[in-house]
Amino acid sequence: MMRGRLMGLGFVLLLALSACATTPAAVPAVYDLSQLSPLRLNVAHVAAADNAVGVSAHAITMMPDLKTRLNNWQQQRLQAAGADGQITLVIQQAEVVRQPLPLRQDLQGTFTRQQREQWQGTVKAEMQLLKPETAQRGFVSAEAARSTTLPEDATPAERQAAWNNLMNGLISDIDQQFEKNVRQHWSEVLVGQ
After folding, report:
1. Is 193 inside a domain boundary?
2. How many domains does the chain have?
3. What DSSP character marks residue 186?
4. Is the pLDDT of residue 182 over 50?
5. Would 191 be classed as within a structural domain?
6. What does the DSSP 8-state code read for residue 58?
7. Cβ density class 160-183: b for 16+ within 10 Å, e for less
8. pLDDT digits (tens, 9 = 90+) for 39-68
9. What pTM, to 2 d.p., does this model score?
10. Domain limits at 156?
11. Across the strands, what pairs with 67?
């Protein structure tokens, strides 16, 4: 009888420990744009420029970084479909800053998985239009900000999943804002949409 209770207790403890060892769900490394049709623009060229000023002392980088993701977004989403002019995606700010969070030092803090740091991501970008033949100029802009927290003992997989979630969220927000602004303010620049 005692042996049965010990086996039962051992089984319960094993279940409890296995619940602690679950791995986070896989997060796509890059925001999936395949379901979105490109924005076809009445210009001959689409380019990108990085005008972001200095990086904060608390900025962090994991791969692929935010600027790389913005450039990938520009290449996949903006399509030149005209005879003259250019649209340039100008990156004004693209960084993720790490902020340490205070940890509880009491007894409850000892037995709690506390949040150790916060990652704050910010993107500011502008699409600039220049068509010399018609003297047409203009710009639309978009901004996105998101944050996430990480526990004190985050595994590499948890850190990468948090990074990918943050990056994908920022790119999704920028994509939605740019599409809305282009459709609202540059309807004459869109081709066949």
Report:
1. no
2. 1
3. -
4. yes
5. no
6. T
7. bbbbbbbbbbbbbbbbebbeeebe
8. 999 999 999 999 987 666 667 777 678 888
9. 0.79
10. 2-185
11. none
